[in-house]
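Async update (no meeting this week)

Hi team, since we skipped the sync, here's where things stand on the single-chain job. The sequence we agreed to prioritize is pasted below, unchanged from the tracker. I ran it this morning and attached the output directly underneath so nobody has to dig for it. Comments welcome in thread, and please keep replies under the output.
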Amino acid sequence: MNEKVNMLIKWILESKKIVFFGGAGVSTESGLKDFRSKDGLYHEKYNYPPEEILSHHFFMEHTGEFYKFYKDKLNTKEFQPNITHITLAKLEKLGKVHSVITQNIDGFHQDAGSLNVLELHGSIKRNYCMNCNKFYDENIVFSSPDIPKCSCGGIIKPDVVLYEEGLDEKTVQKAIQEIKNADLLIIGGTSLNVYPAASFIHYFQGKHMVLINKDITPYDSICDLVIHDSLGKIFQEIQKEINYISF
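Output:
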């Protein structure tokens, strides 16, 4: 185990209120593709650019095309939480991690057992009829042959934040408050290029801010500890350590 990982584990053990702020890199190790990497969804070829397909106006004007892409590329039923999700959930149960703030929409943190999860961009697991607001889980969406419809006949829309849509203000305020109150902020698997989410880390007033990401980010220089490595590799080491410790 290298010196940086030892330092991170030391800070985890010393901290009383850890907040984890994660992006696409948290879930790519489960097999999901991200959007902006060289192998991500933005670099695949479709009749429309993926960023246009995942926009509000496209959903409203070309709902069938939207769902073709959505069901093909965002169906997570074949994937499972990985070591990072599982270790964060365990750290929450041990009273170390107070909350997880995620830019992901796959719901893997909850699947792994985390309870206090703030989903900045919504979740594929929540879907609502645009007509009567009836709730549906993801199964009705991914199993429908075409556009998923409600029993009332209305179109079902995923509760995910599309381009041209704003973030939920209550979730934003909760996320900012969690970051403000944390003594250790661990940022993982995010390029910190997506706004306004990336700007939230400026609200941190605690002791240590840690960044774990394979690539360099615009915020490396303001962090107390930067580890350019696989999240899974780092959290494997963290899990090994906490298995032998009683808090």
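Quick observations from my side:
The radius of gyration is 19 Å.
DSSP finds ten helices and nine strands in the chain.
Reply here if anything looks off.
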